[in-house]
Amino acid sequence: MKSVEYDLRYIQAGLEVLEDYLLSEDVFWPMGAKPPLGEPDFPQLTLGGMLLARARLVSQHLYPGQQEQVQRAVSSLDRYRTKWRVAWEKKARQCFQVRQRMWGDYLRDYQENQPDNADRYAYEVRLRVMLELLRSEYNIENKAEVELIMALDGYLKSALVPDGFIWEPELEAGFPPGVYWFLYGKLLLSTGKRL
């Protein structure tokens, strides 16, 4: 699991370049920030990554000093959302399309080789979480996008075995099963249904 400090630093580093990122045509943006000692390198900046880090941060119990820092970072992120609304929505749409392709690729990999890909689900499902977070940031008007996410979800529901929350217990409160149902199960190893 990524620490509170990891997610907080990712957002803080992202805020330093967010205006340039939002105004660019790029979905992935380099950041020069270093992660906390002993944690993995930061991924490139994406709007989906920022929203996921934010969601993880606000779902956890934080110490008073952490609460202050997280609140400042979240407020700054919200100010960008308001100030750069059109660019924000455009970036959310771009990120949604890329993450949807990546999520579909993972599900096809799983379909073709279940033994090698079922165990990756707890990690790869972050893509589906990002899709959920991103689609609340803009109006999906593209019928093909809607149909594709419905098809992917339909397939996932046929392959998912209901189970407990698959991420760290301290995150569960921020990801309720009514919305994030895909975080409450594991993949079967023998479904014949195809995407």
Put the structure in a nutshell.
By secondary structure, the chain is mainly α. It has helices spanning 4-23, 47-59, 64-83, 85-112, 114-117, 121-124, 126-135, 143-159; strands at residues 160-162, 185-187.
Distance between the termini: 30 Å
What radius of gyration results from the CA coordinates? Answer: 17 Å
Residue share in β-strands: under 5%
Low-confidence stretches: none
Specify the biggest β-sheet: 2 strands, antiparallel
The helix/strand series, from N terminus to C terminus, equals HHHHHHHHEE
- What is the molecular shape? globular
Structural class: mainly alpha
- Structural domain count: 2
* Count of DSSP H/I helices: 8
| Mean pLDDT rating | 94
Helix content: 55-70%
* DSSP, total strands: 2
Instruction: Please list the strands of the largest sheet in the order they lie side by side.
Output: 1-2
What does this entry look like structurally?
This protein has 195 residues and is mainly alpha-helical. The protein is built from eight helices and two strands, in the order ααααααααββ. It has a two-stranded antiparallel ribbon with strand order 1-2. The two termini are 30 Å apart. The mean pLDDT is 94.
